[in-house]
Design goal:
single chain; about 100 residues; mainly alpha; about 70% helix; about 0% strand; elongated
């Protein structure tokens, strides 16, 4: 598609161009951005779009991780109790005590 739009023979791409377009396709697919109606027109635009999608994907993952962290820490007493129980179980395991104790 890119070769048809730019009227370049598919054999006219150098290694960087092929890698750049391959990376663009992979990032576009993995981030779920989709292919849409608007697409980059040149190699520099393809590179910029790939970088932008990478950064946006990492920012989105960071936002989701922070939301999950906030939801997990809503009940501080339960979290503290769970941590104390985990510590006690590790201590009992390291001392060789039975769990029935």
């Amino acid at each position: 598609l890119y070769a048809e739009r730019t009227h370049v023979d598919a054999h006219g791409f150098d290694v960087f161009d092929v890698y750049n377009l391959s990376m663009y396709f992979c990032v576009m697919t993995l981030t779920g951005v989709g292919f849409g109606d608007v697409s980059p027109g040149g190699q520099s635009e393809v590179l910029l779009c790939s970088i932008t999608m990478f950064v946006t994907g990492f920012v989105w993952a960071w936002v989701i991780a922070n939301i999950v962290n906030v939801v997990n820490n809503l009940d501080t007493f339960s979290s503290h109790f769970q941590k104390l129980n985990d510590d006690l179980n590790m201590l009992m395991d390291s001392r060789g005590l039975s769990l029935a104790l």
